[in-house]
What we know:
By secondary structure, the protein is an all-alpha fold. The protein contains three helices and no strands. Helix 1 crosses helix 3 (35-46). The protein is globular. The chain starts with a helix and ends with a helix. The model has no long low-confidence stretch (mean pLDDT 95).
Amino acid sequence: MDINQKKQHWLKVLKQQKQSGLTIAKFCTNNKINVSSFYCKRMAIDT
């Protein structure tokens, strides 16, 4: 997966979390995503 594909993947994950209505912690638990990784990726993409 190249950098652009990774960014697109995380943009999709971030969008899914927002649309889910779940807290970040619950969404991450349900999707087997490390919560720290989620916040780190979100911060990197938002900048």
